[in-house]
Amino acid sequence: MTREGEPRESTASAPLLVVIHGVNLNLLGERPSVHYGSFTLGELEDRVREAAEARGYSVVFAQTNHEGEFVELIHRFRKKAAAFLVNPGAWTHYSYAIRDALELVKGPIAEVHLSQIEEREEWRRVSVIAEIARVRVMGKGPEGYVEAVDRLAAVARGDARPGGDG
Ligand code: DQA
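Above: the input record for the complex with DQA. Below: its predicted structure, written as tokens.
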């Protein structure tokens, strides 16, 4: 289910941010650096954890290459998560199963992509989760994840600017 078997959960009683990486994102560092940079998933998570904890969240990270497991992770955290940050990888472009699962979650959802999907191949320009994502960030690498955390925190405070993309 995850690289290390189980999602890593902080123990604090702070609001919970659930970060789920989808298919092939375990291989960051090996994937084409022109789109994805040369950092590893572990390095990305360290950056996100630092940003999230600084904004008062406790964080759970998970990565899976199995669509059904991605769905089950959403089910598992759908009620306890204060917010979700997801990068479903290629599933973004066609998984109505993931979209349907995300529709069940309580808190706001951020959709994040390392690359600028709207400037790549035609098929990557479609996101089937765009409509239900409160926050969308793409093409900004790891800092895009930090921006998404910031914007989720702003939504929680009730001072988010309207609109998705950024
Ligand atoms: C991605 C973009 C997707 O098109 C691709 O399949 C990925 C990563 C991104 O982060 O830029 O695996 O979601």
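Notes for the reader.
Residues 1-5 have pLDDT under 50 and may be disordered.
The longest strand covers residues 16-21.
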